[in-house]
C-alpha cells in the first residue's frame, strides 16, 4: 500500500513539471493575447496543485512505510507495546488458572459425603427389637437390632432394687440358686428334707475356665461356686433397667436365661463388666457367652454401648453361625422329690451276730437299705461297690460310691 502511494506521488510531481513549463512559456507570450493569459494562469494553478499533492503524497509515503515496518517501530514503541500486551496477558493467564481449580475441588465435594452417609444404615436397627425373640436367628442379626447408647448414670442402683436374692419366681418350691445348681452341676446329691431342691454336693465344669471343680455346700465352701448374672445387674441398670418396675427387675435377676453356675473367683473378677471390658478366659465359650448377653438384652429391651456392640460384633464374625440360646434350653429342671432321701423311720438294723471267742465282727449277708437315710442311720455311709447293702439305686451318680 505504501509503495503504491509513493508511485502516485512521483507521477503527480512529474505531471506538474511540464505543466509548469507550459505555464511559463505561455506567460512569455501573454502580451500577445489576453485569452491565452487566462489559460496560462489556469495551467499554472493546476500545475501548482499537482505539485503540492505529489509532494504531499511523496513525503507521506515514507512515514507509512516506516510505521508499517516492524523493525522501525521496535525502538520507540517497545515500552508501550511490551507493557500493554504483558498487562493484557497477565489477566488471561490468571483467568485460565482458576478454571481447573473448581474441576479439582468438585470431586472432593462429591467424595466427602459417602463416608458420612454409609455408616448411618449400620447404626440404625434393621428391624424392630420387639420382633427379635431369643433363639429366633443368628446372634449377629439380633445384635444389629439392639439400640446403641451410652450408659445411664448408676445413681440409685443397689442389689436390693432387683428384689431379694434368689427368690422363687417360678414358684416351683426351690430358690433360683438351687435351681441353677441342679441344672449346671453333675453328680448332685440333694439335702434330705429339702423337697428335692437343695443341692448338697456336686461337680461343676466351669464354663468360663473349662476346669472341673467339686462343690460342697457349707459356710466355707459354698462361695467357691457362684451364680453369675451374664448381663450384670449394674450393667442392666445403666442400660434401661433403672426405668423398670420392681417386679420386672426381680424377674430379670432370677431369669435362668441370664444365669450360669461358674467359678466364684472368675465371677468376682468379672464384676459388672460387659463384652468390651471382660470375656471368659476359655476362648471356646466366648461366642456362646456374648450370644447369651445379646439374647438377654433383646428379651428385656436393654441397649448396648458402642464399645460393647463393637466388641461383640468382632467376636461374632468368627462364629457367624452362632445362634441365640432359647429360654427352653436355659430352663431349670423341676425338683425331683424322689431324689430326696426322706427322713423316714429307718429300717431296723440287722441283729448283731452272737459274740464268739475270739470276738469277730461279721457283716450280715443280704443286707439292704431303703435309702441313704437308713445307711446313715446304720452308720454304714458311704457304701462302696461290693459292700453289703450297696446298690445302684443308692449310687445315683454311678461312681461306685453310694450315700457319700
Task: Describe what you observe in this structure.
- The model is unreliable at 31-37, 60-111, 115-136 and 354-365 (pLDDT under 50).
- Helix content is 45%, strand content 8%.
- The N and C termini lie far apart (136 Å).
- The chain folds into three domains: 2-76; 129-330, no CATH class; 341-404, no CATH class.
- It has a three-stranded antiparallel sheet, with helices on one face.
- It is mainly alpha-helical and 404 residues long.
Labels describing this entry:
404 residues; mainly alpha; 3 domains; three-stranded antiparallel beta sheet; 7 strands; 45% helix; 8% strand; elongated
Question: Topology of this protein?
Answer:
Layout: H1 2-28, H2 34-68, H3 70-73, H4 78-96, H5 100-111, H6 113-117, H7 119-123, H8 139-145, H9 176-184, E1 185-190, E2 199-205, E3 212-216, E4 225-229, H10 233-238, H11 246-253, E5 259-263, H12 264-270, H13 286-299, H14 306-317, H15 327-330, H16 372-377, E6 383-384, E7 401-402
Antiparallel strand pairs: 1-2, 2-3, 4-5, 6-7
Helix pairs in contact: 1-2, 8-13, 8-14
Helix-strand makeup class = mainly alpha
Biggest sheet record: 3 strands, antiparallel
Total helical segments: 16
Radius of gyration: 58 Å
Helices and strands, in order, run as HHHHHHHHHEEEEHHEHHHHHEE
Question: How helix-rich are the residues, as a percent range?
Answer: 40-55%
Outline, from the CA principal axes?
elongated
The largest sheet has its strands arranged as: 1-2-3
Distance between the termini: 136 Å
- What is the count of β-strands? 7
Amino acid at each position: 500500500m505504501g509503495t503504491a502511494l509513493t508511485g502516485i506521488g512521483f507521477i503527480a510531481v512529474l505531471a506538474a513539471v511540464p505543466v509548469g513549463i507550459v505555464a511559463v512559456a505561455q506567460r512569455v507570450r501573454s502580451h500577445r493575447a489576453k485569452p491565452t493569459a487566462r489559460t496560462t494562469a489556469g495551467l499554472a494553478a493546476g500545475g501548482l496543485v499537482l505539485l503540492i499533492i505529489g509532494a504531499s503524497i511523496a513525503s507521506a509515503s515514507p512515514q507509512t512505510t516506516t510505521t508499517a515496518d516492524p523493525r522501525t517501530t521496535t525502538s520507540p514503541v517497545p515500552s508501550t507495546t511490551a507493557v500493554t500486551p504483558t498487562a493484557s496477558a497477565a489477566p488471561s493467564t490468571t483467568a485460565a488458572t482458576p478454571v481447573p481449580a473448581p474441576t479439582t475441588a468438585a470431586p472432593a465435594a462429591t467424595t466427602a459425603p459417602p463416608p458420612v452417609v454409609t455408616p448411618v444404615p449400620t447404626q440404625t436397627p434393621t428391624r424392630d427389637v420387639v420382633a427379635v425373640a431369643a433363639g429366633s436367628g443368628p446372634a449377629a442379626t439380633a445384635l444389629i437390632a439392639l439400640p446403641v447408647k451410652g450408659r445411664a448414670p448408676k445413681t440409685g442402683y443397689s442389689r436390693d432394687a432387683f428384689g431379694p436374692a434368689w427368690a422363687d419366681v417360678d414358684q416351683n418350691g426351690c430358690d433360683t440358686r438351687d435351681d441353677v445348681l441342679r441344672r449346671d452341676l453333675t453328680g448332685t446329691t440333694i439335702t434330705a428334707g429339702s423337697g428335692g431342691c437343695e443341692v448338697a454336693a456336686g461337680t461343676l465344669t466351669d464354663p468360663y475356665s473349662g476346669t472341673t471343680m467339686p462343690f460342697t455346700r457349707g459356710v466355707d465352701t459354698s462361695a467357691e461356686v457362684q451364680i453369675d448374672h451374664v448381663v450384670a445387674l449394674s450393667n442392666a441398670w445403666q442400660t434401661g433397667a433403672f426405668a423398670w418396675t420392681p417386679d420386672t427387675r426381680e424377674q430379670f435377676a432370677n431369669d435362668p436365661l441370664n444365669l450360669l453356675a461358674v467359678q466364684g473367683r472368675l465371677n468376682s473378677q468379672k464384676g459388672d463388666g460387659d463384652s468390651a471390658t471382660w470375656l471368659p478366659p476359655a476362648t471356646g465359650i466366648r461366642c456362646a457367652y456374648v450370644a447369651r448377653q445379646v439374647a438377654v438384652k433383646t428379651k428385656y429391651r436393654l441397649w448396648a454401648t458402642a464399645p460393647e456392640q463393637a466388641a461383640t460384633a468382632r467376636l461374632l464374625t468368627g462364629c457367624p453361625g452362632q445362634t441365640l440360646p432359647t429360654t427352653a434350653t436355659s430352663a431349670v429342671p423341676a425338683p425331683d422329690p424322689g431324689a430326696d432321701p426322706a427322713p423316714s423311720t429307718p429300717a431296723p438294723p440287722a441283729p448283731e451276730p452272737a459274740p464268739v471267742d475270739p470276738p469277730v465282727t461279721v457283716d450280715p449277708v443280704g443286707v439292704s437299705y431303703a435309702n441313704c437315710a437308713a445307711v446313715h442311720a446304720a452308720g454304714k455311709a458311704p457304701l462302696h461297690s461290693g459292700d453289703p447293702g450297696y446298690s445302684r439305686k443308692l449310687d445315683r451318680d454311678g461312681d461306685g460310691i453310694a450315700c457319700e
